Amino acid sequence: MKILQLATALLCSSAAMAHYTLDYPTSRGFSDDNEPQAPCGGFNSAANRTQFPLTKGFLQIKSGHVSADIKVNVVYGNNPTAADFTSAGATPASSLSIKNPGDSCLPLDLSTFKGAADNTNATIQIIYNGGDSPLYQCADVILVSSAPTFDTSKCKNVGAAPSATSPGGTAPTNAGSLVSMNGVKTAAAVLILAVVFAL
Ligand SMILES: [Cu+2]
């Protein structure tokens, strides 16, 4: 268990930084320890809803990893179940990758996404893989054509903007990045073994 914690600390860019946080729209809740729990990082009931525009929406995250592959799912309804999230995962609303730690603004335009309509309750799920394990955050929203309370000033990037790998519901192709992730894990494991033996 100690080894696992060490591995997490090594894989995150700084032990003091969380894996990642969803900073906007408001997350259902954040617990660094529970973030690996599907579907919403340990928070299983819908919380306060943020107005989210159908056109030109975004998700603002802060990443503790230097790079990550990210999948975004949209689930409809007032309080979706774990099974609802699983079935929504078959047609992600967006797949992106980021190459910088810190602030990233993930574009999410749902204007042509299946089922997205004005005045619809939905939950946006982020599945983030920075190399340790998939990490989950959710935001409960109401999708609207006009979203006057959606704060567009929250969108900011440190370094390069995220790149979309497959927008609009196409399944992500992650084969290449999975290989490099395993490379990172192996490197961390070797490093840990070296530390353990040095002690
Ligand atoms: Cu992490």
Topology diagram in text:
Elements: H1 2-11, E1 20-24, E2 50-53, E3 57-63, E4 68-76, H2 82-88, E5 94-98, E6 102-108, E7 120-129, E8 135-144, E9 163-164, H3 175-198
Parallel strand pairs: 2-8
Antiparallel strand pairs: 1-3, 3-6, 4-5, 4-7, 5-9, 7-8
Helix pairs in contact: 1-3
The site of copper (II) ion has 8 residues, from helix 1.
Q: Would you give an account of this structure?
A:
By secondary structure, the chain is an alpha+beta fold. The protein is built from 3 helices and 9 strands, in the order H-E-E-E-E-H-E-E-E-E-E-H. The chain has a 6-stranded mixed sheet, covered by helices on one side. The protein has a 3-stranded antiparallel sheet with strand order 1-3-6, with no helix packed on it. Strand 7 and strand 8 form a beta hairpin. The longest helix is centred in the last third of the chain and has 24 residues, at 175-198. It starts with a helix and ends with a helix. Mean pLDDT is 83; it is low at 168-199. The structure holds copper (II) ion. Copper (II) ion binds next to helix 1. This is Copper acquisition factor BIM1-like domain-containing protein. It is a lipid-anchor. It is found in: Cell membrane; Endomembrane system. Its main location: membrane.
SS field, number of helical segments: 3
Q: Ranges with pLDDT <50 over ≥5 residues? A: 168-199
**How many runs of DSSP E, i.e. beta strands?**
9
Q: Secondary-structure element order, as H and E?
A: HEEEEHEEEEEH
Q: What distance separates the N and C termini?
A: 17 Å
Bound heterogens, unique: copper (II) ion
Describe the global form: globular
Task: Give the % helix.
Answer: 10-25%
Rg measurement, Å: 17 Å
Strand content: 25-35%
Largest sheet: 6 strands, mixed
Q: Return the CATH class.
A: Mainly Beta
CATH topology: Coagulation Factor XIII, Chain A, domain 1
- Give me the CATH architecture, please: Distorted Sandwich
Mean pLDDT: 83
Count of distinct structural domains: 1
Q: Which class of secondary structure composition applies to the elements?
A: alpha+beta
- Strands side by side in the biggest sheet: 2-8-7-4-5-9
Domain Copper acquisition factor BIM1-like: 17-158
Signal peptide: 1-18
Protein name: Copper acquisition factor BIM1-like domain-containing protein
Keywords: Cell membrane, Glycoprotein, Lipoprotein, Membrane, Signal
